[in-house]
Specification:
The chain is an alpha/beta fold and about 180 residues long. It contains five helices and seven strands, in the order αββββαβααβαβ. The N and C termini lie far apart (about 75 Å). Mean pLDDT is about 85; it is low at about 1-25.
């Protein structure tokens, strides 16, 4: 069996360490022209994968198809109606395992745009919300804002606890709350 000397192995290990650090930590900012990642202006190509509409065993293949299509970012909604089916009771099991989905994307080297919602077009809100006294949906309404703040804080807290935001070394470079808001 042939042995490899440390002097031959050291440059390779340094390269792996350098590349690994580059992949794990990045700086994401923006200016009036572009998103800037690690000091470089980037045009990011993204595509959507709605994890609750597939099964965990499908996620790697779907992500690979995104890679094959030269995507940089996977955009996904966080569905309030499936994650909080009743007030304060959360479901992150099986196809609703948001953390597992985000970590699968991270393993494949893509970024994430997390669209926290809580309203997701045709998927709407959890049914229980209509029974909240005084609620008026998608407005400057205190009962609505309180309910949605709880959901948003739950999701943000979960992502932070798993170190999934870019500032923590994770793949989430963009997050968005409520793109369907009406005044």
């Amino acid at each position: 069996m042939e042995t490899i000397s440390l002097s031959k192995l050291l440059p390779f290990l340094c390269l792996v360490l350098f590349v690994g650090v580059e992949l794990i930590q990045c700086s994401v900012t923006y200016n009036r022209k572009a998103i800037v990642i690690n000091g470089q202006r980037r045009i990011l190509i993204s595509g959507a994968i709605h994890y609750p509409r597939s099964t965990p065993d499908m996620w790697e293949d779907l992500i690979q198809k995104a890679i094959d299509g030269d995507l940089d970012v996977i955009e996904t909604y966080v569905f309030c109606n499936v994650h909080e089916p009743s007030p304060g009771n959360y479901n992150f099991e099986g196809r609703y395992d948001l953390v597992k989905f985000i970590k699968t994307i991270q393993r494949e080297g893509l970024y994430v745009q997390l669209r926290i919602g809580p309203y997701v077009c045709a998927d709407g809100f959890p049914v229980w919300l209509k029974y909240v006294p005084g609620i008026s949906f998608k407005t400057e309404n205190e009962p609505f804002k309180r309910a949605m703040q709880g959901f948003t804080e739950k999701i943000v807290g979960l992502m932070k606890s798993e170190n999934l935001f870019e500032s923590q070394g994770g793949p989430i470079i963009l997050s968005q709350i409520e793109n369907e808001y009406e005044m």
